[in-house]
Structure formats: structure tokens, C-alpha cells
UniProtKB/TrEMBL annotation:
Gene Ontology biological-process annotations: fatty acid beta-oxidation using acyl-CoA oxidase; lipid homeostasis
Protein name per its UniProtKB record: Acyl-coenzyme A oxidase
Domain of life, source organism: Eukaryota
GO-annotated cellular components: peroxisome
Organism lineage string: Eukaryota, Metazoa, Spiralia, Lophotrochozoa, Mollusca
Amino acid sequence: MATGGVNADLAKERERATFDSEQLTNFLYRGPEKVRRKRYLQNLAIQDPVFKKAPLWAFLNREQQYATALKKHLHAYRRIQELGITEPVEKFYYREAAAPHENSPIGLHESMFIPTIEKQATEEQKRKWLPLCHSLKMIGTYAQTELGHGTFIRGLETTATYDPVAKEFILSTPKLTAMKYWPGNLGKTTNHCLVMAQLITKGKNHGIHMFMLQTRDMETHQPLPGIELGDIGPKFGFFDNDNGYMILKDVRIPRENMFMRYYKVLEDGTYVTPPGDRLNYLSMVLLRSAITSMIGQHLSQACIIAIRYSAVRRQTEISPGGEEAQVLDYQTQQYKLFPALATSYAMLMAGRFMYDFYLKTTAQIEKGDLGTMPQLHALSAGLKAFSTWECTAAIEVCRMSCGGHGYSHASGIPKIYVDATPGCTYEGENTVMMLQVARFLMKMYTNLQKGQELPSFVQYMTKSLDTKSCMKEEVAPKCLVMAYEHRASRLIKAAADAIQAMVMSGSSPQEAWNKNTVPLTWAALAFCHMFVVKNFFEMVEDAKMDGQTKAAFMALCKLYAVNGVITHLGEFIQDGYLNNQQVQYIQKSLLDLLAEIRPNAVALVDAFDYPDAILQSCLGRYDGQVYQALYDFAKSSPLNEKEVLDSFFDYVKPVQQELEAMNQPMARL
Ligand SMILES: CC(C)(COP(=O)(O)OP(=O)(O)OC[C@H]1O[C@@H](n2cnc3c(N)ncnc32)[C@H](O)[C@@H]1OP(=O)(O)O)[C@@H](O)C(=O)NCCC(=O)NCCSC(=O)CCCC(=O)O
Ligand SMILES: Cc1cc2nc3c(=O)[nH]c(=O)nc-3n(C[C@H](O)[C@H](O)[C@H](O)COP(=O)(O)OP(=O)(O)OC[C@H]3O[C@@H](n4cnc5c(N)ncnc54)[C@H](O)[C@@H]3O)c2cc1C
């Protein structure tokens, strides 16, 4: 363990902050009572001997990582029930502290399997399945993706053919590319899964539907007849999870195993469809809606590590013979880290909006009002894609800003990165999601041209495009937001005009669309960026906190907006909306904001309120004793258990002896 109290530089940083980080913590977690409860639950987990005793994941091989993660998550599952924790966010706090940076092998059971039963099953199915799920007799996952198709789900090849005589569905993966491939925890952990398959009844294919399939015996855990299951092998991250493959050879399941809350197959094979078209896709929307907050949290952890470390790390004397500077004092270091910090806050705010919007909209959908489904789909797809792209890039910036030590697992950042980056791929590959946003925006644009009313978050399109920005030397939030609205509107119009022009000159709408997908993704990205900026300003303005805290928070918000203009400058100036002078104001504002944020940098990351036990980083420690921690980490490497390794005698010695013999003058003759 490191000793020596809090590092002097870090202590000074906390003293010089202009605001009380606890105020911001209270805002982030929605009030002091919730913060107390969060800390209480985290401490319960941190103090639990089962979690405390386990070795650090970084020193384990894959099988050990899987077994440790499973053991911890099962213990957490049991403790959560014993403690009567029911709120999803409270379960999350407990789990995160119980197994930090260890992905749960029963994660999809909790995040997709149970919620899908709750939302898509009939009352009778819920009565049958949910108690078994809660007692873990049934452990399930979501099996949609196949070897040949992940994105284009209408092209899935698994079939569910109804047999009206036996009143059963026959599930089959008729060719190699049809096998289920990738579903989390499918390989070894689960004994049930939700299968997405083409429903065929009375000789007709009705598209993909959801079925409950038991994959393994509930006592012996052996795969059931006709089912081949396995782990897909090591990946870039998620080492501790058994993403799996599954082959089905005419596996029969009862008719009642089709999810029938919305879509039904009657005993005689008649297919009954509800008014809504994409209700089967709602499980994906749930997870997409949660990803923006989740990825914002990943980035916030990377920022804590990189910013605390940059306050402790001293490198290079600024004037000859003088003291070496804290690397955080270099403007270039601030330019790496403060936009990353601003991005994490921006995404936490966007995630908060998204999740609240999800809850509101799904409540309406459940009452039969499907009117807001397209908006929910577009926003959840867009924010998921935008946030995962921005945050994973920023995590990597944080890692590199820690120099060499950032490359070690001792920093904690490499693991954060490899577990965050699949967010760009799963739950809808990001480019594909952006094109879904573009599809929605093009529809809105057409509706606007027809004089129809638009939903509130695309209302800005109704304003005519200003030709000049209102930006002055004092860079005002209002002018920043308007610049983002202008950029989004202009790019939406440009993409729509390009498509329209092609159609007018004889192309089919599909052809025109396919020839313009790059400008369409520019438009969708600009829309998402605008949404995040606007939402961030609104949330900071509405936040109930003292003036100093709000000022510190506002500086971050402005930095997020200003930095976005600079990194996408071409799109803001292409039509002359911002002139040279205005661009200079924005560039100067960026430098001023870096200086303004500098004294508050450590307090702004302290506000995320992550205990050391969760961060698991030698560089991000609250006390800043990084060097002792790095030494302790090195000492604990299993390679150091023996002073001289067997491999020295097995490999080095024989080769040395051979080379020595070869190099004898006699041998060369
Ligand atoms: C890309 C699309 C959206 C295309 O679907 P499609 O039916 O071919 O749609 P289209 O013809 O382009 O559009 C038809 C229409 O369907 C709408 N739509 C599409 N998706 C939704 C939705 N979720 N909610 C509401 N509406 C939706 C579209 O907006 C279109 O509407 P429109 O015709 O324009 O009115 C779809 O195939 C898709 O969602 N693909 C991504 C697959 C995916 O997300 N897989 C996730 C697997 S589970 C997973 O990864 C878990 C990982 C978790 C972990 O490990 O933690
Ligand atoms: C860690 C992890 C966990 C996962 N867990 C699950 C799970 O639990 N359950 C499950 O069912 N699946 C799971 N998946 C699978 C995941 O959902 C898919 O990988 C994802 O939906 C992307 O599909 P794909 O792999 O087919 O990519 P592809 O669609 O093959 O993408 C390849 C490239 O093609 C491009 N592309 C594809 N279609 C288009 C298009 N129409 N227009 C333009 N470009 C296009 C993409 O942008 C991308 O650049 C998981 C994946 C990972 C990595």
C-alpha cells in the first residue's frame, strides 16, 4: 500500500478550487440523499469480504477472469435481493463497486432478458418465467446476431416454422451463416435465450419475431438435444464474458414460447399482427437509451485518472534550473484533457435526458400510443452512436496523456477503453445508426416542406437559415447554440437537396439515397452534436446550485461547445456563417476557457465521486501517491513470484550453449 498522506500538489489543487465539488456531486446524482445512498451501497460492496478477497483481474488468465467475474456477480445478485435493493440505478452502484471493471457473465440476463420478458411477454408468460428468472433457475440472454448478419436484421436466417398439428415451432439455423454468433453469455453461462427468428406459418414468412428457447438442462447444464453451443474465443475486451455461438437443428418449442404480447400465432397457425410495426425492436431501444450515460461514466473515470495524474506528474523544468512543471500546467495537456472532461459531462447530461425520454415514451407506447416511437428510435440511435464515438476517442486521448504509464493496466485506462469501444458496434453499428437518424431527419424535412408541424427537438429547422452569426468577442451561449442549429439545418438541407436533385434527374429514391450516405451521416452527426450542446446548456442553466459551482460548470459547457466548433470548423464556415474575426473570437475563447478551468480541474473530477476501490487505478488515486502504487503493482506481478523463471533454464540456457558452441573458432572451420 502507498503511504505518505495526500500528495502535496493534489492537496493544493483541492484548496485552490473556486467551488465545492460536493455541490456538483449532488447535482450529478440528483440530490444529497441519493449521494448518501450511493455511497452507502458502494461501501457495503467494497467492505464485503467476498469481493475484497478476489485477486485483481489484470493478473488472471481468461478462464480465471470469467470464473472470478461470475462468482462476484452471482454473490452481488444474491446480496442485492437480500438487501432489498430494487431501483435499477442502486443495483448498478452496488454491482459496480462489487466487481469494478469486470463485465458480468449474467449481465444480459439482467439488462436485456428480464426487461424483454417484462415488456414483450403476455401476463401468463410473465407469471411463468419471471419467478424462475429472479431465482436464477432460468438464466438468459438475447440471441439475435448471426454469423452472417448483425446489422440487417430483416436478413436473419434462423427460422421458426409453426407446426399446427403438434402446436409447436421448429427452430432451425439452416446454414453456416445462420448460426447465432456474438450474444453475450450464450456460450457457457446461460440456460435460456430469446431467439430472434423468421416466423413462418401457413407457408408464409412474417419477418423476425421473438421466441423463448431453453438451451441447457436446468439441472445438469448440458446442452439440450439439437443444440450446439460454445464460446467464440478471446476478443479485444470483454475477456471475462462468454460471447457465444449456437447452432439449432430442428429444435421444437411449444407455441406458448413465442412472445405474444403484441404479435400472435393462434393454435391453427393464423398470424395476428398489432398496429405498430417495429414493436419487436424495443429491447434494442432500451439498451441504446442507456448507453449514453454508461459511456459518459466510462469517460468520466478516464478523466479522473488522467487529470489527477497530470496534477501529480512533474516533467521538464520551465526555466533552466527551475522547478519541473506539473504536466497539467501545459496548455497542450489542458487542450487534451479539458475537452475530454467537458465531453464526459455533456454525455452524462445527454444520457440523463435520453433515459427520462425513454421512460416517458415507453409509458405512452404501453398505453397504445405509438406516435412518439420514431422520435424515440431516432434520438436513442443517434445519441448512442454520437456518444460512443466521442467518448471512446476521448478515453484514448486520456490514456495517451498519461504517457508511458497510461499503457500499463496499472493506470486502469486500457481496460476502460476496451470495454467501452464495443459500444460503437453493439446495439446497432454506429454508422448504421446515424443513417437511421438521417432517415428520420429527411422525413422531417419533407414534412416541413409540406407545412406540417415538427416535433419540438427538430423545430429549429422551421427557422430560415440566417446568413450571419451573432457571435461577438464575448462568446455567448445563445450564439453558440444558434451556430450548431445553423450547421445542422444547413447540412440537412444540403443532403436533402442532393437527393432531391438526383431524383429529379431520373434516379430512383433508393439510388439517390445510396449515392448520398456520406453527406447524410454529416447531417445526422451535426444534428446529434447540436442536440447535445443545446441540452447541456439547458441543464446547466436549470441546475439548482450555488453561483460558483454553476460558473465552474458553465465554463465546461462553453468549452464543449467552443471546442466542437473548432474541431468541425469547416462545417461552420463553409457558407460564410462565421467570419474570420468571429473564428478568432472562438479560438481565443477556447484558450481563455482552458485557463479558467485549470484551477478547478481536480475538483471537477472529484465531483464524479468514484472511490479508489472502484477506479482501481494507480494513477487516479485520490491521495495521488502514484509512484508507490506503481511500484506495488509491479511487485505483485505473478512473473515476480520466482526470482529466476523456469523458462530461463528451458530456453535461454540451451540457446546460449548452442550459440556459444557455434561461435567456437573450431566450430566455424
Ligand atoms: C438498421 C435497422 C434499424 C434497420 O431495420 P429495418 O427493419 O431494415 O428498418 P428500415 O427498413 O431501415 O426502416 C424501417 C422502419 O423501421 C423504423 N425502425 C427501425 N428500427 C426501429 C426501432 N428500433 N424502433 C422504432 N422504429 C424503428 C425505421 O425508422 C423505419 O421507419 P420509417 O419506414 O422510416 O417510418 C435494424 O436492422 C437494426 O436495428 N439493426 C441493428 C441491430 C442491433 O442493434 N443489434 C443488437 C443486438 S443485441 C446487442 O448487441 C447486445 C449487446 C449488449 C452488451 O453486450 O452489453
Ligand atoms: C462485445 C459485443 C457484444 C455483443 N453482444 C450481443 C448480444 O448480446 N446479442 C446479440 O444478438 N448480438 C450481440 N453483439 C453483436 C452486435 O450487435 C453486432 O456486431 C452489431 O449489431 C453490428 O453488426 P455486424 O457485426 O453485422 O456489423 P456489420 O453490419 O457487418 O458491419 C460491418 C461494416 O459494414 C457497415 N455497414 C453495414 N450495413 C450497412 C449499411 N446498411 N449502410 C452502411 N454501412 C453499413 C458498418 O458501418 C460497418 O462499418 C455483440 C457484439 C459485440 C462486439
